[in-house]
Amino acid sequence: MIEELVTAGAATASAGALYVMAAARVVKQYERGVVFRLGRLLPEVRRPGLTLVVPIVDRLHKVSLQIITLPIPAQEGITRDNVTVRVDAVVYFKVVNPSDALVRVEDYRFAVSQMAQTSLRSIIGKSELDDLLSNREKLNQGLELMIDNPAVEWGVTIDRVEIKDVSLPETMKRSMARQAEADRERRARVINADAELQASKKLAGAAQVMSEQPAALQLRLLQTVVAVAAEKNSTLVLPFPVELLRFLERAAPLPGAQEAGASPASSGQGATAATAAGAGEAADPEALAAQARELAGEFPPGTSGDVVRQLLEGLGEKGVPGLVGERAVSEAEPGTPGTLAGAEGEGEGEERTDAEGADGSGDAPGEGGMRG
């Protein structure tokens, strides 16, 4: 009797052990268990840990709640501005309702993949090329909303969507490179123009300061000479005073004086540039020197002004024409009345006439001068 009880207890224990082994299931921490009993879904979702199911009657399906990374294959499309592009992306999603993920959709991974591909094509057609290249955050948000709307019914939520790469045709890449180069050149020119404007303002301020202190201009001249001489050049460049150029411009012949000297109608009036010269008379050196001193006094004091005054006074003392009358010398041809050259021509004609009268040619002395 005792042996029968022991045998029955051992059989019961063995059967219980086999039942436990057949019914025991382990659900991991990141998983949830969904039980189907005779094909019907049980409302209770099994939590992580050890759980038991009825052998042969129950079927336990484990669903992972981890975030799943799903790459989207590259999709070709035409943007709204008619540019062919090739875009690929990646989707991050997770299951929030294990029962819906198993019951409402056959394969939620494949469903999310197909929805992501169609949404990516749609977002390419609605966007422009510039948005795909520079405004990806907005496109990512729009793509996430397009995928998340149907995925909510499947017990899946979209964590985020990222556009990985945008491939462009080679011709489009070259065109964009030329556009970027032109834009950089434009910015460079604007920066150079701004720099020139600022430099001109600084130079204007420096010129104003130097005008108040004439010695500063001389110091600047010496600095320039030192800078040029430091290069060990055989040629030394010195600045030319602007006042001397102005003096030479004033000393240039006036067009009105030549026209007045060449026109017979104005022979009675005479040229304004040679009022002090008559027939057979030459320019007075003292008058030239006085005129040079008068012109030299018009220049402001300073290094350049002193140089110009000395030069003008030297020219006047040497009797250089061009400083009498209206500060111009008429360079008309000899014989033109009303000019210094005409007066010289008359003097030469008078001398030739006197010589011919002395030789007995029949003309009276001085007649040539009268004809002149």
TrEMBL record:
Gene3D superfamilies hit by this protein: 6.10.250.2090, Band 7 domain
SMART domains in the cross-refs: PHB
Disordered, as annotated region: 257-286, 326-372
Domain Band: 22-180
CDD domains membership: SPFH_eoslipins_u1 (cd08826)
Family annotation (InterPro entries): Band-7_stomatin-like (IPR043202), Band_7 (IPR001107), Band_7/SPFH_dom_sf (IPR036013), Stomatin_HflK_fam (IPR001972)
Cross-referenced Pfam families: Band_7
Gly residues: bias regions: 359-372
Domain of life: Bacteria
Family membership: Belongs to the band 7/mec-2 family.
Protein name, UniProt field: Slipin family protein
